Structures are given as structure tokens and as C-alpha cells.
Amino acid sequence: MIVFFSLAVSLACDPSTLPKGVRISQNGPVLKLTCDPGLQPLEMAYATSPADLLFPVPSKRKFARYVCVDGATYQRINAQGIERSSFFCTDVQSNLCDPLENSAERGHLRVEGAVAIWQSVSGSQRSVLYCAHGVWHRLGGGSLPYGEAAPSALASSPLTPLAAHSLI
Which pTM value belongs to this model? Predict the structure, then answer.
């Protein structure tokens, strides 16, 4: 395990893959993530197949540890090695983010509180969205299925916040 962590130090990972709404402290190659005040910690287990739409559960811990793996992404770790779940933080009140509107021709959307799962019609793409500080984010970083684009670009995207959609 020591060789694994010392290798991780020399490689740079993209910090944009870390969840939003967290405070990060570093101890060598290990990053400790805790939720910002007013946010609740959740854990998301990885689904075994794209058809499984698992929703997150409250985290058993108030923090998570991450390390850079192969210079590609940060992975959650525990005492046994790589953790097969993600840690992230959401608003306690689910009404802080604008409601989402979905284009049924492009995908399916399930919303539970401050978390939403969008899956393409073909089932080949899935995104976990979460609300932190009143803004929708995509778990794992990257752009949201609906993007945070100008109103003119929203017309062709699969998901739009209702408030932005009404501007079109």
C-alpha cells in the first residue's frame, strides 16, 4: 500500500473530479473531504449494471479520504484500499436548486430530494446530479446533461433547470 500512495504523489489528478460543496485538507497524498456547513454527507454505491438506478444513502462518516490513482482521477480510499462508493454533500433542503425539466425523448430523470439520476433512453449514459449551495452539479465532475449554458443553447439539451427553460 505504501508504494501505491508514493506513486500517487508524483502524478497529478484533475481536482475538478472531486465533489463540490466540500472542504479539502491534505496530508501527504491523501485528501480529506468534509462537507461545508449546511450540507449533508451522502454516499453513492456504484451500480453493477447501467439498468440499476441506485440512490445515495446518508454517509456513515462525516468525511471521506481520497487519493490520486494513476494520475487520472481521485478515488475514495479506506483502510483496505479503494472504496467502491463516492462521497458527496448536498443541501439539506431540496428546494434550494431550481427544479429540473427533462426531455423524455433523450432520457429518464428520477429526482429524490437534492439528488437526481438522469439516464439516456438507450441506457448507455447515466449521470448523478446533486444540489449543493443551490447549484446542480454532476457527480464525478464534468458538465451536467443539461449544461449551464446560455438560454439559446438550452433548447437542444436533454435537461434544463425550469427557471432557465422559461427564458427561451
Answer: 0.72
